[in-house]
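The records we work with from here on pair a chain with its fold. The integers have meaning only within a learned vocabulary of local backbone shapes. A complete example follows; check for yourself that the lines match position by position.

:::
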Amino acid sequence: MDAILDASPPKLTLIAHENITERKRLEVALQTMATTDDLTGLANRRHFLARLTEEQARLQRQGNQRAVVLMLDLDYFKSGNDRFGHAAGDMALQHCAALMQNSVRKIDQVGRIGGEEFAILLSGADQATAQIFAERLRQKIMDTPVVYKGHAIPITVSVGIAALTTQDVTIDTVLSRADAALYRAKAEGRNRMALADA
């Protein structure tokens, strides 16, 4: 009888279990979709610009650091697209994107800015290093044509190079200088690089 009187109500423990694996997978997929170019797998324009903004802030804080922006454009892309078709054009974009991505360090950023235009941020690099890098990349792209339906499609790129400086008030400043250098390279005959005016 004492046991019945002294018995307290049974304690219940409620354990809730939820598998969040699927939710995490979806979050990663959404993040990837928001930051990655579907066709090339490179950073999309928005993500590249965000990374460039971070780099500019780092330079403003640390002052003595360096970085360079390269703007690259596939030469005669539209005429190649018209001649061989959009599938060949897509293949050319993917091919060049892979060559660019495989040429940079982990601290650098490659992005597809739009159409056949790409940008590369070389963190910690000076203009001389960027010139050597750009020439090697230009040569590599030129030396490796895309093979589509038995046709070797030659690809060349024009490159504009601009150093990111602490005087660049916004990232638009350095992008404009790199873009102007790119168009100068195109005007001078394409398949070459040009340095931005200081």
